Amino acid sequence: GIDVQAPRGTCTSTKCPWHGGLKVRGRVFHGTVVSDKARDTAIVTWDYYKRVSKYERSERKRTRIAAHNPQCIAAHVGDSVTIAECRPLSKYKRFVIVEKQ
């Protein structure tokens, strides 16, 4: 498993890793929620540096991922969250929020 705290809230969603039957596997990332407008979805982003060896410099890059936002966690804009990879939940969602820090 992954080292995260269980949420205090409860929900009845089958797509919740805590209260439903969703299994998480693979990659785990930490990021910030930048949008929570869609229902049960949050856009999570994080910044990183990529080295460009040709120019001997680093460039700043940003990753944006749509993640399932369970009702028991209910992350909002500005929250730091941990997301984990899971099975495909929709056309674009392959991650689920497992912890709000």
General description of the model:
The chain is mainly beta. It contains no helices and five strands. It has a five-stranded mixed beta barrel with strand order 1-2-3-5-4. It is elongated. The relative contact order is 0.31.
Please provide a brief summary of the model.
It contains no helices and five strands.
What are the main properties of this structure?
101 residues, mainly beta, 5-stranded mixed barrel, 5 strands, 0% helix, elongated
Q: What integer value in Å does the Rg equal?
A: 15 Å
| Low-pLDDT runs | none
Q: What is the global morphology?
A: elongated
* Average of pLDDT: 94
What's the oligomerization state? single chain
Beginning-to-end CA distance, first to last residue: 18 Å
Number of helical regions: 0
Tell me the β content.
over 45%
Spatial order of the strands forming the largest sheet: 1-2-3-5-4
Structural class: mainly beta
Based on DSSP secondary structure assignment, what is the total number of beta strands? 5
Order of helices and strands: EEEEE
The residue fraction in helices comes out at under 10%
Reported for the largest beta sheet, the result is: 5 strands, mixed, barrel
